[in-house]
Amino acid sequence: MGFSIALIVFSLLLMLLVLMHKGKGGGLSDMFGGGMQSSVGGSSVAERNLDRITVVVGLLWAACIVVLGILMKVTN
């Protein structure tokens, strides 16, 4: 039951994080400072941190799916 709730929370959080990424025309991350480009080049610190957080949440989401699959197999 706990992993099912965690999967729902991680799914919603992952959707929110993906929507916050800046696309070709900008994104919701512009509201949080992600739209400011540095003159040196590359993406801003906010955008890089958003990338890192998205990857971590994605890995946790995948781990929840694996654990739920194992638990379903063991209980049946």
UniProtKB/TrEMBL annotation:
Pfam families: SecG (PF03840). It is a multi-pass membrane protein. InterPro entries: SecG (IPR004692). It comes from the Bacteria. The chain crosses the membrane at residues 53-72. It is found in: Cell membrane; Membrane. Keywords: Cell membrane, Membrane, Protein transport, Translocation, Transmembrane, Transmembrane helix, Transport. Involved in protein export. Participates in an early event of protein translocation. Belongs to the SecG family. This is Protein-export membrane protein SecG. It comes from Streptomyces xiangluensis. The lineage of its organism: Bacteria, Bacillati, Actinomycetota, Actinomycetes, Kitasatosporales. The gene is secG.
